[in-house]
Specification:
By secondary structure, the chain is of the alpha+beta class. 25% of the residues lie in helices and 24% in strands. It contains 13 helices and 23 strands. The chain has an 8-stranded mixed β-sheet with strand order 1-14-21-13-3-12-11-10. Strand 6 and strand 7 form a beta hairpin. The longest helix is centred in the C-terminal third of the chain and has 17 residues.
């Protein structure tokens, strides 16, 4: 069997995309400091990072929020893990092979990898972790792609084999699933992984503290401690930055970043997500395709980007962000250019000539989404649609909007759990557990199934793009942008690295002399 190194084409991005942080590395970021790369790193010290949401679960297999996953990235690792350039590199495994028919993946475990509780990782732990995420006894598997796992077999102490029921050349991307100790049932209160940092403490709604893993198998982190301080008020995050109680904040607005002129440097990337006005396709009037198309014609993404972030960000026209360049097609942004008269015509055809009232649910802690919703409200007035914003806390959004699908519309950013088109598009399959917008389209389901079954990369890519085209044509959502990610870091800290995924890698950050 031939070893497969799965590498996305993120490395070959255009200069424009690279400068917006969709490829990793220091060269992909803009910074207000010119001498940052010449600073000498030191070991030790701590940093306090401001975040707007509490973690929804400390168990990595159960977490839903991207904000939780970006923090837990520092504690947990899979058999492989993504690097900042979009490659999948070996982590808990030291080597892997894929059979020629793409139905058997074989992993050799890295020797000497220890969990944070001192236990050495075994093949039993790997089997337990994969089986747990593939379990269907309570419904859908925790990782939907694991529905095609036939068996997880231990060949010897250092070798684990995963057999699939159908070919899947992308399956390695799902091997980022966290490897957990088999006989340990305290993940929710005291998480244990294999990453460069380990859990220290948590005070709900206040902070989450991790410390350096001195026994880490790979390159050790520079910092001794990272404190994630939870502050639901976006403006208070900036106030605390200025006051000195916080050293770093991600996803600032342009106006917030402009306030931080002295003592800070700003790194600029994108968030690697698709921000949209997500519509519940199962409720009136959004169960009518013409209504959804009318909303798409009514809004102006460029105006939103100008007003929310001084024109920063990258426009999208379907459920794919630019960081996944192989699958991103800019032409989908041309499906709907603002045309108020066309929007009114479509509403009339749909039976809503006089418009209608609608509600936009938004997490109140996400200022970019709140700002976007406010612009949308004004733009929709032009076609007689009266939209009101319902601000909610993040936990309420997760429960009511995402899990219970109890909403009309919402402004949020949807990201990929891994570096595949499948991760972005699978949620829109009619019976998918994550299909919170209730999109239901037989052509889409059929095309997606063909895509995940395709053996040839070119055919698979074309089919994924067809899925994206269907989402755009049917106006499953009103697509807007991949938001700019402005990161403010106190002078004296360097090493921030952008990934083509929604993660915060604290192991690369260091204090300067």
């Amino acid at each position: 069997m031939k070893k497969v190194i799965y590498v996305l084409s993120v490395l070959t991005m255009s200069l424009t995309i690279a400068l917006t942080g969709c490829s990793g590395g220091k060269e992909s970021a803009k910074s207000t400091t010119e001498n940052s790369t010449s600073a000498k790193p030191t070991n030790g010290g701590s940093i306090t990072v401001g975040i707007s949401q509490d973690l929804d679960s400390l168990d990595p297999h159960l977490s839903v929020s991207a904000g939780t996953k970006e923090v837990l990235f520092n504690i947990f690792e899979g058999l492989v893990k993504p690097d900042s350039n979009g490659n999948f590199v070996e982590a808990v495994s030291s080597h892997y092979e894929m059979s020629q028919d793409a139905m058997v993946y074989t992993f050799t475990l890295r020797e000497g990898v220890k969990f944070h509780n001192g236990q050495e990782v075994t093949a039993e732990d790997v089997k337990y972790s994969i089986d747990r995420c593939a379990d269907t006894s309570n419904g859908d598997p925790l990782v939907s792609a694991y529905s095609i796992i036939e068996s997880v077999n231990i060949l010897d102490d250092q070798t684990v084999e995963i057999r699939l029921t159908e070919p899947n050349t992308e399956f390695i991307a799902y091997m980022t699933t966290a490897i957990l100790p088999k006989d340990y049932d305290e993940q929710e209160s005291h998480p244990v992984g294999t990453g460069p940092f380990k859990f220290e403490s948590r005070t709900p709604q206040e902070d989450f503290v991790i410390v350096k893993n001195e026994e880490y198998w790979g390159e050790q982190a520079y910092l001794d401690e990272v404190v994630f301080k939870i502050e639901g008020d976006a403006d208070m995050l900036v106030t605390n930055l200025k006051g000195g109680s916080i050293d770093m904040v991600m996803r600032l607005t342009s106006s917030q970043a402009a306030e931080l002129t002295d003592g800070f440097h700003i790194e600029e990337g994108t968030m690697n997500l698709v921000q949209a006005l997500y519509l519940n396709n199962a409720v009136e009037p959004f169960d009518n395709e013409k209504v959804r198309q009318a909303l798409s014609y009514a809004i102006n993404p460029e105006e939103i980007m100008d007003m929310v972030a001084d024109g920063k960000g990258v426009r999208v026209g379907t459920s794919m962000y630019p960081g996944l360049k192989k699958y991103f097609d800019e032409s989908y942004t041309e499906f709907y250019q603002q045309d108020v008269e066309k929007a009114k015509e479509l509403l009339k055809e749909a039976g809503y000539e006089d418009g209608f009232d609608m509600e936009i649910t938004v997490c109140s802690a996400d200022q970019p989404h709140m700002d976007t919703a406010q612009v949308i409200v004004e733009e929709l007035k032009q076609i007689g649609v009266n939209a009101t914003i319902l601000p909610v806390e993040w936990n309420t959004w997760l429960e009511e909007t995402y899990s219970n699908r109890n909403f009309q519309s919402t402004v949020v950013g949807v990201d990929a759990s891994n570096l595949t088109a499948r991760a972005m598009l699978e949620r829109f399959v009619s019976d998918a557990g994550g299909n919170f917008i209730n999109f239901n389209d037989s052509e889409y389901d059929e095309t997606f199934q063909k895509a995940i079954s395709a053996m040839e990369e070119e055919e698979r890519t074309d089919l994924y793009k067809k899925c994206e085209e269907i989402l755009a044509e049917r106006a499953a959502n009103v697509y807007i942008q991949d938001l700019v990610n402005l990161v403010a870091i106190r002078d004296g800290y360097e090493g921030y690295t952008f990934y083509p995924l929604y993660v915060q890698d604290m192991s690369t950050i260091y204090k300067t002399e």
